[in-house]
Amino acid sequence: MSWPPKQKESSDDGLPSLENAGAYAQLDRDGWQVKYAEEFTIRFGEVDHARVVYYPRFFHYFHRTFEDWFGDALGISYREIIVERNIGFPAVRIETQFKSPLRFGERIRVELELVRVGKKSITIRYTITRVADGVLATTAEITTVAIDNDTFKAISIPDDLRERFERFRT
Fold first, then answer.
1. Which of 22, 50, 138, 161 is the most exposed place for a label (fewest CB within 10 A)?
2. Residue-level pLDDT at 14
3. Of 51, 46, 85, 47, which is closest to residue 64 (Cα–Cα)?
């Protein structure tokens, strides 16, 4: 796949064309989005004394991509979900494998694939690769649960969000 992949000029399905220059969506043969990705440069403050990315930073990269995915690919801002609709998506399960270190100044690609949509939860697979050579650095699967932000009780995923998730699922 070339970088960045060609984007739709306009969206006739109610979902946005990607505007973020560092983001792209991979489309299947029917034009449905099946992957979302962003590129970042590793900052000095993200590495530890061993001069590699400190492992909790990977979870920041995952969540940053998760937040941007809402607005860029699903057509609804994460802020609207959290603040205006009062719905949270805290992580309840994380499985991660670290394959190769990343260092200050390297450019990375964080790719997101929605692999499961449940009644109250979604599971997303993330991969992080080094852009320069395509080396796989990290993989993760993260399950998040829809909650009411006031009570912190799980809720069913609202129908409009479920529809957006289902359209993106691999």
1. 50
2. 44
3. 46
* Single-letter code of the amino acid located at 27: L
- Structure-block tokens of residue 15: 């979902």
Q: Which two tokens stand for residue 73?
A: 């690919």
Rounded CA separation 15/33 (Å): 10
Q: How many CB atoms lie within 10 A of CB 122?
A: 22
Residue type for 88, please?
G
Per-residue pLDDT tens digits for 20-54: 445 655 555 555 557 899 999 999 999 999 999 99
Which of 156, 140, 165 is closest to 73 using CA atoms? 165
* Dist. CA 35–CA 125, nearest whole Å: 10
Tokens coding 169: 């699922």
Polymer length in residues for the chain: 170
Does residue 120 contact residue 92 with C-beta atoms inside 8 Å? no
CA dihedral 71, 72, 73, 74 (to 10 degrees): 10
